[in-house]
């Protein structure tokens, strides 16, 4: 599985394209809002000859969902989120204009992700782990074979997700990290929703929030 990161919008959000030798592709957390950002995503997909087969959200804060409708409409795929984050998604239309996103157009969820279920595309499998705390319905996607975790806004290099937004809870987030992420092998690479990738082992050793 190849992981491609494209960084979009004023929040510098990491959008991930996951694809393998079959050319099937999954888009995770499309943050592309401006036309040139949408074009950048489209150009990469075209250049690599990819076929988008799934649209997934780790969670539904504004910076992670701005491109949902574009991807859903362009590639004819249904949005998949965790049921517990549906209210988070629906609230974006209310507050998006206050952040300057006056053209935000919402995509409706087409299916719901459940913990311990598997997302399959091409020759690749992603295990769904339920990791609330930053958002009530936050999930991460773990590829055991490649030792890769698409982590959203749970764990960052030297930091953790903020918990002061509606539905956030610090103790719940710490519990999610310790019971869901820190039980993964140390060599697992975590690709977060913002900033550079890190590893489970590094964060166990150096993350000041988790010592």
UniProtKB/TrEMBL annotation:
<feature type="domain" description="Metallo-beta-lactamase">
    <location>
        <begin position="12"/>
        <end position="194"/>
    </location>
</feature>
<protein>
    <submittedName>
        <fullName>MBL fold metallo-hydrolase</fullName>
    </submittedName>
</protein>
<dbReference type="InterPro" id="IPR051453">
    <property type="entry name" value="MBL_Glyoxalase_II"/>
</dbReference>
<dbReference type="InterPro" id="IPR001279">
    <property type="entry name" value="Metallo-B-lactamas"/>
</dbReference>
<keyword id="KW-0479">Metal-binding</keyword>
<dbReference type="Pfam" id="PF00753">
    <property type="entry name" value="Lactamase_B"/>
</dbReference>
<dbReference type="InterPro" id="IPR036866">
    <property type="entry name" value="RibonucZ/Hydroxyglut_hydro"/>
</dbReference>
<keyword id="KW-0862">Zinc</keyword>
<keyword id="KW-0378">Hydrolase</keyword>
């Amino acid at each position: 599985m190849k992981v491609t990161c494209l960084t979009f919008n004023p929040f510098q959000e990491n959008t991930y394209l996951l694809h393998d030798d079959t050319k099937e592709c999954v888009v995770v957390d499309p943050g592309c809002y401006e036309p040139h950002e949408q074009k950048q995503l489209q150009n990469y997909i075209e250049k690599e000859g990819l076929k988008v087969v799934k649209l997934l959200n780790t969670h539904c804060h504004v910076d992670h969902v701005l491109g949902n409708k574009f991807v859903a409409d362009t590639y004819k795929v249904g949005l998949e989120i965790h049921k517990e984050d549906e209210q988070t998604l629906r609230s974006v239309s209310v507050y998006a204009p206050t952040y300057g996103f006056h053209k935000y157009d919402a995509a409706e969820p087409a299916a719901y992700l459940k913990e311990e279920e598997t997302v399959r595309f091409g020759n690749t499998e992603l295990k769904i782990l339920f990791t609330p705390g930053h958002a009530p319905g936050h999930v991460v996607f773990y590829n055991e074979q490649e030792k890769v975790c698409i982590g959203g806004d749970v764990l960052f290099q030297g930091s953790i997700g903020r918990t002061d937004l509606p539905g956030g809870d610090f103790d719940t987030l710490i519990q999610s990290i310790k019971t869901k992420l820190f039980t993964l092998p140390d060599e697992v690479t975590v690709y977060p929703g913002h900033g550079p990738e890190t590893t489970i082992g590094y964060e166990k050793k150096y993350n000041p929030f988790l010592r």
